[in-house]
Write a structure and sequence with these properties.
Blueprint: H1 4-26, E1 41-48, E2 53-54, H2 55-62, H3 66-72, E3 86-87, E4 92-102, E5 105-114, H4 121-128, H5 135-141, E6 155-161, E7 168-169, E8 172-180, H6 187-193, H7 198-204, E9 217-226, E10 239-241, E11 245-248, E12 253-256, E13 265-268, E14 290-295, E15 298-310, E16 313-323, E17 385-388, H8 390-400, E18 407-410
Parallel strand pairs: 1-8
Antiparallel strand pairs: 1-4, 2-3, 4-5, 5-6, 7-8, 8-9, 9-10, 11-12, 12-13, 14-15, 15-16, 17-18
Helix pairs in contact: 1-8, 4-5
């Protein structure tokens, strides 16, 4: 049993933690992209899965095609359980969304959530949508009066953050992903994970310093392949992030990006069944077929290019050109498998969620939010009997997810 002094110390530490929790949420920052046109763009959100879910369940939650999630994460669409395999809590999944201009600000308003019996606005924001949105934003988007309750079965529009930035980054095609900063993240670790630089992140988000905090919403530019290289107006607007693919034209055509270049490559989808119009006119070549012939003048290339999907019809174009060398057969990105488990916890009992389609993030550097502080752990020589304050550690884990325990030493 704790002594009166110990109990007082425990109570004080609980209050400090609650103060820090409220302060951190109050001071969380979000990048906002102003807009003045009614166009839309393809964008992504990095969804930190709050509880074990299937790909199909995530698709239902965000009201998108499950195939679009498989493609955005580079998962094999032909694996029998690709849509039903359970993804572990803490995984980070790229979810494609349409980004709109709403009241002068970029956001996605296409996700509608149905209220369940145990829901509250904070639980919907935190436990359902992974803190990509705040309960205040949900309240405002649905004109809910201050303190107004929710009704079971009520439909709520979820105003998800998104970005377009003209679909370019430093003059090159890019898809932008909304990312809710996690405890332990730094600009350096985020940049390394998603193939960009700290300088680019600072510039895109107009950051005044290298410091970021858990709960901040930032925009991450992902290098992409644009349909502009096909030079066909009926296919304008197709943008695919590097290392991923998109299934389009009624699931008949699959367009991939990378890994050797950033030219969009489209070919018949592996899921295609009955898809008329896949041949180029007056040719035996299918969309995606390329014939190369080395000549004294260079490499003569004949190819059947995908030209878009218009009024229910697949368009294609037969092209012929000369280039210095023959490049050989196109190599598409390698498929990955959805994760079944997360990495083992770190020594302090916590591990940062990992992106299932990307390499493990390096340990955060000196820039940004640091990892758990070893100084918070008791030294063997600091006292003769050190006990964790159980109520504090439980509170921090359940309420704020703070990655450490606070110890109290009885001398």
């Amino acid at each position: 049993m704790l002594s009166p002094v110990s109990a007082a110390m425990e109570f004080l530490l609980v209050q400090v933690l609650l103060f820090l929790l409220v302060s951190s949420r109050t001071l969380s920052k979000s990048t906002i992209e102003p807009c003045n046109v009614s166009d839309t763009c393809d964008s992504l959100v990095a969804y930190s899965i709050p509880t074990d879910l299937k790909v199909s369940e995530v698709a239902t939650r965000f009201q998108v095609d499950p195939l679009s999630i498989l493609g955005a994460n580079g998962f094999d669409p032909l694996t029998s359980d690709s849509q039903t395999q359970i993804l572990p809590s803490g995984s980070i999944l790229k979810v494609p969304i349409k980004c709109q201009c709403v009241n002068g600000i970029r956001k996605s308003m296409s996700t509608v959530y149905t209220v369940q019996p145990i829901d509250t606005l904070p639980s919907i924001a935190d436990s359902v949508f992974g803190r990509l949105v705040t309960w205040n934003q949900i309240e405002a988007a649905n004109n809910i009066s201050d303190g107004g309750g929710l009704n079971i079965g009520q439909s709520l529009v979820i105003p998800l953050p998104c970005f377009c930035f003209n679909d370019t980054d430093n003059g090159f095609p890019a898809v932008y992903m909304s990312y809710a900063v996690l405890s332990g993240d730094s600009l350096a670790s985020i940049a390394m994970t998603y193939g960009t630089t700290v300088t680019d992140l600072v510039g895109v988000n107009s950051l005044g310093s290298f410091q970021i905090a858990a709960g901040d919403i930032i925009a991450i530019p992902l290098a992409a392949c644009s349909s502009d290289n096909l030079k066909l107006p009926s296919n304008s607007g197709l943008l695919v992030a590097n290392g991923s693919y998109a299934v389009t034209a009624g699931h008949c055509v699959q367009c991939s990006c990378g890994p050797n270049d950033l030219n969009l490559y489209c070919a018949p989808s592996l899921l295609a069944t009955s898809c008329p119009g896949m041949h180029c006119k007056d040719s035996n070549l299918l969309i995606g077929d390329v014939i190369e012939q080395q000549t004294s003048a260079g490499c003569n290339v004949t190819s059947c290019l995908y030209g878009g999907y218009l009024n229910g019809k697949i368009h294609s174009s037969l092209t012929n050109f000369l280039q210095p060398q023959c490049l050989g057969k196109h190599v598409p990105p390698v498929y990955t498998r959805p994760p079944s488990t997360l990495p083992a916890p770190t020594p302090n009992g916590f591990s940062k969620p990992k992106s299932p389609s990307l390499a493990t993030s390096p340990s955060p550097g000196s820039i940004g939010v640091a990892n758990s502080n070893p100084a918070m752990e008791p030294s063997p020589n600091s006292c003769t009997s050190c006990k964790p304050l159980r109520s504090v550690s439980l509170l921090s884990m359940l309420v704020s997810g703070l990655p450490y325990l606070i110890y109290f030493c009885n001398r």
